[in-house]
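Appendix B. Chain record.
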Amino acid sequence: MKDTERNLITFRNLCVIAHADGALGEAEIRFLEESAEAMGLNWEEVQTLVQQGPDLDFSIPSTEADCYLELRMVVLMMLADGDLAPQEYARCRQLAERMGIDETYLKEVISVYQAKREEQLKNLGIFQNLYLVAAANGHISPEEEEFLLEVAHNLGLHQDEVDDLMARYPDLDFIIPEDREEAFFSLKNLVYMMIVDGEIDAQEYALCLRFARRIGLGETEIEGILNEYEDLRKERKAHQSEVDYYNLDIYLDVFNAVRKLDVSMADLLRQVEQVARDYSPHALHLGPDAFCDLLWLAYVRAPLINHEVAVLLPVYIDLVRISNNPKPLIDFLIENEQEHGATPIALPELPRKQICEEVLEVLRQKPW
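Structure tokens predicted for this chain:
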């Protein structure tokens, strides 16, 4: 089946679930538009499918791997507006049953995606507070703009979310809880972001100080938070082994290299899927070296140290594919490594050919 035909089937299924609760909201329309663009479909040409959604039925993919991918895409569509309507869940469960997928897996996927959405809303609040601090004097300097863009990237925010927030600036206010302890916790989050790179930049410090003053605090509180984080860093360092640092450095090096790639994550993942389907001893090209290393950490290293990763890994791969941002996967892999990793990562010593072969071998065996 050609990619266009396969993508039309997926888009048709998205239209079915989008209409399941009897309403088609702005968030759902935006998700359909973004999905059409990601699939290479002309939005004007698929309008008929969007309009026919209430009268359509699901189309079932022909392969097991496509069924799992289809279900995860439909779940994302179902949660696009932030609500999980009973009618939507019932339709999604019907789809899972028809594809032979257990409801337990469906619930796990929904749980992960809901958690990521809650995290996304929280991250938007963090960015909103930062933006209000930066714009408090009516002017955002180039340095402040660069810092905001970096924060947005690190938080995994989409460009349209950032643009929408900035466009609503006159109507925005700080997201600060009335409870003083919670407000102080918000400041601690901001200070942590300032020092996450191991340095205290004067301009970043100024941003934190502005934020602190807007919530009735000041430099004394910031210095106290900095001292607290420094004590915590020393305590963690005293208990971390050399293996922990060695492994973490490898992850950070790989992720930094991936961030510098001027290539769409979605395009790279599509290439990997094609290579995996056409597997042969010579089909070893999986993309840039940094991307191959990321795949090795995800598909080879992560399941090796924790077999339960196999259940959730496809969900995070999909998040990378849809958001074009590797951060969800990065966070997941680092957390898994910190909890389960006990041996040095062999990646730096492996030949490039072996890295590709090991990734392909895993992809051949799993319906991911």
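Further analysis of this model is presented in Appendix C.
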